[in-house]
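Appendix B, Record 12. Input sequence as logged:
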Amino acid sequence: MASFDLAIGAVLAHEGGLVDDPADPGGLTNFGVSLRSYPELGREGVAAMTREQAEGIYRRDFWDPLRLGEVADQRVAGKVLDMAVNMGRRAAARLLQRALNYVLPRQPLTVDGIVGPATIAEVNKTDPETLLWALRAYHATHYVSLVEGPDKRFDKFSVGWLRRSFS
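Logged structural output:
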């Protein structure tokens, strides 16, 4: 089964350290943990966050609820974690379900953004390489739709998001 400790390094490499970019809707962010998502931490708490604290948040709020420790393929679990951290847990779960529906010749999953036993079972039955390609494509499509949308703040993130999508 997949390991959080193996997956978190790539996520933190993508997220970087302390950033306060006015174009980022998350606002002040450290290790990818944003003040917008965690207002209870306050600006000082986000700014002073350690890597270990960020990892704890990612395990508690992303890895465990998405049941990624039950995924057989490390690369698939890592990709879903990375997507969830950047776009939100439910959005990443919906993209996972859409990707599974695209590559599966079986009965489609309900795209509800909830990773339950049926989603995990299908993830583990699906060829990991094929699923990763579908995940990357849906991930990129999500970001393209944001960049092409009316909010022009996202334009500056397009190249980085595409790189992240296909990693």
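The domain at 4-165 is CATH 1.20.141.10 (Chitosanase, subunit A; domain 1).
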